[in-house]
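Render this sequence as a predicted structure.
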Amino acid sequence: MKLHEYQAKRRFAEAGIPTPSFELAETVAEVLAAAESLGYPVAIKAQVKVGGRGKAGGIELVDDEAEAEAAADRILGMDLKGYTVEQVIVEEAVDFAQELYVGITMDRGAGQPVAMVSEEGGVDIEAVAERDPDAIAREHVDPAFGLHPYQARRAIVEAGIDAAVARDVARVLQTLYDVWAGTDATDAEINPLMVTTDGEVIAADAVCNVDEDALFRHPELAEFEEEEARDELERKAHEYGFDYVRLDGTVGIIGNGAGLVMTTLDLVDHYGGEPANFLDVGGGAKADRIANALDMVFSDENVDSVVFNIFGGITRGDEVARGINEALSQFDEIPKPVIVRLAGTNWQEGMEILNTDLVTVEETLEDAVQRAVEAAAEVAA
């Protein structure tokens, strides 16, 4: 479960991480009242659960009431990477001298949590890692003991953080690890962690993604889970009982089994496309479940093509084919190109049942993915 920035910031602030003062607003009038209360200049920041909000026009720094009104009117209600902006935070502006990055996640290769620090904050940390891996200092953590103070200090030194703020940054990193572990989070990061002109450190952004399977241990997050359900696609996924993650791309992906879906995502990327989602319909998926999966993917305005990757074990290829036919027969015109690859139990029967007037059929996964990537590119063009 992804937390909104304001929700994550509240968690961080409660733990003792310095954050800017902010207020949540849902109307232009509330934005203006919050800005007046906080004092100009302020930042108005869209609250949607995607990265790159600033580049997409979802964050604006304003100096007076006229600018605040114009920004609020533009941002509230805008479509930001497929999400409608219903809330913004109005946050006091930070006069900063440097932007840092700190984060905690799981290193699955090492089988341990890893704490990360970099001087190159305020930008996509994945791009930094790809361009210059040495720009990110890493400390693996034994979860039995947590992040030791000496480990936090070592990461700060290796990252080249100025000695004047090293102790404060180390303290933030340790507290962030405590939040990560105590919340059963999958990721927790601050990007940027700003160093102000007065030499203070403050979390200008906040990310915290919580393992949904651990929510029963965190009743305090119940209200966040209710707010999470606001998104239409996430509501549908919950209603249908799907494992679903929305991504930023244009190729919709439906498969049965997490490994199979992940393989499909990797191939979409390999062939130059961008996955729009992770959608696992699970084992034993019958016609109605397949129809529900198509309903979900078609509901995502970002999707330009759909690829089915079904391997029959418990799931039978003929049942999948009937589900695809039934779902698509409801449309006068198919909204997105659909490419299907079936394998395993009854796959040949499924191939014969599929209505090739409605879908494109490929025998190999590679061919199916390439066709889906090409179809999405054609729609975009």
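Summary. The chain is about 40% helix and 25% strand. Residues 149 and 174 are 7 Å apart (CA to CA).
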